[in-house]
Amino acid sequence: METRDILRTLREGRGLTQDALAERVMVTRQAVSRWETGETQPNTETLKLLSREFDVSINALLGAPRQLFCQCCGMPLTEDGTISREPDGAFNENYCEWCYADGEFAYQSLDALLDYIAPHMARQLGAAPEALRPQIEARLMELEYWKEKADR
Q: CA–CA distance from 141 to each of 24, 99, 109, 128, 131 (Å)?
């Protein structure tokens, strides 16, 4: 589904007129109309407001054009329900809800995350956790969270 269709569906689903939505996100009714016809798209700041208004991620508003992955554990973020939130309720599309919640990271060290992930993956794959640990660690070190921690 395209952004224009998503916005119209969300707006109508909430029983809002174009005028009412425009007032809530501080734009003109004509701007909302142009979004819904596909003539233009909301800018970044307006997308943030729309995300809060409709309680969906920006990625969802844009029709999920990119595959999101948690930048801590690598899990695919396929639904808004798995995407973390900031303390103010805004979506944080960089992390899953299990690695980052209410402004706090669940895993302060790579070893803590590996201690959790390795046994679970080993059980699913029928392998020894010690054998998988180096492979998992190498993959995690490619993610932004762990790259930033290593740079400090």
A: 41, 15, 12, 21, 17
CA distance 73 to 146: 9
> Would the pLDDT of 99 be above 80?
yes
Query: What's the predicted TM-score (pTM) here?
Result: 0.68
In this model, does residue 66 exceed pLDDT 80?
Answer: no
Q: Is the CATH number 1.25.10.10 carried by domain 3-61?
A: no
Percentage above 70 pLDDT, the chain: 99
Cβ neighbours, 10 Å, residue 140? 20
Task: Name the residue ranges covered by the structural domains of the chain.
Answer: 3-61, 68-105, 110-151
